[in-house]
Amino acid sequence: MDIQLEKKKGLRPKHYGYIAIGLLLLFVGWKLVFGTAMATFRTDKDRLSISEVTQGKFDDYITINGYVAPIATIYMDAYEGGRVLEKLIEEGATVKKGDIILKLENRGLYEQILASENNLALKQNDLRSTKLTFDSRQVEGRKDLVSAKYDLQKLERNYQQNEALYQDELISKEAYLTSKENYELSKSQYEIIKVQTEQDDQLRKTSLSELDSDLARMRKTLSMVYERIDHLNVRAPADGQLGFLDAEIGQSIAQGERIGQINVLTDYKIEADIDEHYIDRVKRDLTAVLERNDQEYPLRLRKVYPEVRNGKFRVDLVFTDDKPVTIRTGQSYIIKLQLGESNDALLVPKGSFFQSTGGQWIFVVDKAGGQALKRPIRIGKQNSRFYEVLEGLEPGEQVITSNYDSFGDAERIVLK
After folding, report:
1. Residues 301, 283 contacting (CB under 8 angstroms)
2. Could you tell me if residue 362 is left (phi over 0), alpha (psi between -120 and 50 degrees) or otherwise beta?
3. Which of 132-136, 154-158, 169-173, 236-240 has the lowest mean pLDDT?
4. Are 217 and 69 in contact (CB under 8 A)?
5. Percent composition of the chain: helix, strand, coil (DSSP 3-state, to 5)
6. Beta-sheet pairing, 258-275 with 287-292
7. Is the dihedral of CA 109, 112, 117, 123 positive or negative?
8. Around Cβ 378, how many Cβ atoms within 10 Å?
9. Each residue of 306-338: pLDDT tens digit?
10. pTM for this one?
11. Are 78 and 257 in contact (CB under 8 A)?
12. Phi, psi of 164 (to 5 degrees)
């Protein structure tokens, strides 16, 4: 007789495995649904700029805005301080080198000239007095030398006569010795006077030379002071246009103060500011083109300034051939600066997406046009129209080139 077994109630061990698998499937499904939704941004397609990736010729240039400036600017600083007495030329006028622009007056400088003139007069009087003294001493010395020489000759003759008489025993020994001693004394006195006269002559030459040098220095100093008086007339340092003049009648100007500038208009240059992104590629002697009235004017990059201010650095360009006939200081022009040779490349039109991504990635629209996915790319050079794509894209693909700031961290854009 069979015995009916009762089914055991409750969860068995195998049921726990089924529950775990079910929970795992639910978690994966939740991640797929809700995880994708968190990384998705939905927007109208019409609000975006969508461009096509193309294969074409990449011209390695940048477009910059330049401003016409004089080829050179010469600043005028006041050589001498003073009060503005007269203003002869106004700003904007054409001047020639040496034209007087301002007249200044300086009472202190006038007093300094009078003092220098008085010192020079005193020095000249001292020199004349010293010359008279030396001339008098020179005359007296020469007289003494002539007298000493006369006495020496007379005593020498007497000594020689007495020596002969003494040898013949015609005079006493005392008389002979006296004449000999007188001769030797006169000889010594003559040598002393001769040396003293020579020393006086040498001293005269040295002293008068030094006095003449002092006098020449004082005259030079006085002439320099006279030049300072002439510097009270502020003159144009070169031919050109008086760019600005910071001086009014009655105004006090300090020595060395900048009061104006002269713009040399024999030629012109173009000043331009360039984004610091290009600072490693912009070098001297690069070529550029200025377009005006459907005509191109070639330029050469003459100078690159090393300072970077507000994310830009400055360059100067000069014309290598003809220039626009109507060119004037302050005019602005659009210039194409050639950075390198043209080459065949994959091109993406320029857009503000670059500011959001730094060119490291881009949203690529699928073939259906319903969504765009984030894709890493690598961008090389750029010009005013295109970015050069080195990798990450293919010709014919559609990409979003407008700004990405509103997308947040989205990795997929749903296009409605």
Report:
1. yes
2. beta
3. 132-136
4. no
5. 40, 35, 25
6. unpaired
7. negative
8. 13
9. 899 999 999 999 999 888 888 888 899 999 998
10. 0.52
11. yes
12. -70, -40
